[in-house]
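User: two proteins, same treatment. go.

Assistant:
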Amino acid sequence: MHTITSSVFRTEIMTVPGGTETIVRGGRDLFALLPQALHGVRRIGVLGWGPQGRAQALNLRDSLAGTDVTVSVGLRPGSASAADARKNGFTEENGTLGDWLDVAGTSDLVILLIADAALAANHEQIFAALAPGATIGLSHGFLLGHLTSIGSDFPAGHPVIAVCPKGMGDSVRRLYQQGETINGAGINASIAVHADPDGHGTDRALAWSIALGSPYTFATTLRSEYLSDIVGERAILLGAVHGLVEALYRHFRIGGDDAVTAYQRSTESVTGPIARTISDSGLAAVRAATGDEDAFDRAYAAAYQPARDLVAEIYDEVADGTELRSVILAEQRLATRPMTAISGSPMWRAGTEAHARREAAPAVVDPLTAGLFVATMTAQADEFAARGHAWSEIVNESIIEAVDSLLPYMHARDVAYMVDNCSRTARLGTRRWGPRFQAAYEQLALPLADEPAADGLIKEFLANPVHEALAAAAVLRPSVDISVS
């Protein structure tokens, strides 16, 4: 299952619970193979200069330097991003910056990295501008979900491929740059080949993924990708984290902690030592790191089912198109009425002092916080497994992306900063579902966190196949942590 066949790159078999997957390792030593793997693509057009557009255009250009493949950026008329694109060397004078439809019409591979709602609104004119046989590239399956909901499809005769980095755009760029000295350092990515009329879709997708710096690439489908991605950002990647730290901060304050201590035990514990422990040693290691396994077990047992129920609800609403429609509807409102920031919550004012205390009094793995967080992360992984997702997709969307990309940024900038500055699709989902998670923790989990843990739940956690899957994926991780200074 989930195999990759390539005529250019060497594939490997990774053993996962219940079977195997085919993956491809990345590395700068493979860059010389990129033109061959692209099979006739000599001009890549990246439409959009948001976080992913910027990162991917720069990485692709750097990886393909010295070849006959050109990377260009296409922007809508009057785009405020044009100045930054020019600053980074994409200019009209050298033919690498232009109108988005002109770039789409003159490129062999057109990578669509504009905002989801904008892509839904403008896909028809982009498709109409494409050169015959040009490959359509995506980094998210949102457009497939939208096309399905309106009874439409991608244009016939065009390969449709996806490369989906499992991290935010800034991580894609930063880890690529750090990888100049550590071969293969970057953000893992999934690939999907949705339409392959010329038979070269897989090689092109692998070339694109390797050029972005992906340490390892795994296979999925476009539908599976958008389901896991959109659910994940509303759950453990963003929405659940927001709800969790707000609930715990309030809980610790009611219990008598001062504001900074409550902030350390909630936010700092999650984004710092809990994230690092999972990244270095896995989920089960967090339990031991608390120094109070009984408290961890009680919290885990109290939170697992409420979290699982919410993840399942989110999944259903993404799968039936409800969540996608809400994003498109919001685009109309937000044209004249921008979203308010969540950073106005009183707890975030404690962040500055908590950050200042890091060296003198660093946050520790709080057992209550750890139990709730790990229960939620495991609940998402279990729900994805029950829905048939591949293990690489499960551990990347539920664990690796969180602890190696998003949580380090939250530690450096704050959870509120991350939520207020993420993509519009993710931000809308976080604002909708974060309060639901907060209510579930406050009303369902925390009142039971002092009760004896259900022994069966803890045994299931310790024997969960997610530990084996995460360990297999961790072997492929380069020894480099993202720098967020």
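Protein 2:
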Amino acid sequence: MQRNPSTASREVSMIERYSDHAANERTFLAWVRTGIAIIAFGFVVEKFNLFVRTIAEASRTDIGSRLQLDRFTGPFSHYDGLVLILIGIAIIMISLIRFIRIGRMIDDAQSHSAAGIKAELVLAVVLGLVVTAMTVYFAL
């Protein structure tokens, strides 16, 4: 059976394990989008905290509204947005390291296990704890 010359050239230029590399890139981009969303939420929380602190300072004469706003301007409210921003940055950095590592593993002829999810698990637990703490803080 004779091959068409154009078909043979396409086979040579095809990236080996292309679907695996494409899946790795899609996963990387999903992690980056998640990190950016968490960073954006952190900025929103920080802006909200700044707004509440400004309102609390402006309403120093009105005791009733000041007492209600004081619970939103406590020590936790100064760092919750910053923690979310740092978690988002950590997610992006870990996803970049993981993307490069997985890309090398795909190209490697040796078989590898998929047991390296410790960093993702730790970040997910920390993010869950921050969101839970924020929820409890605002609920009380």
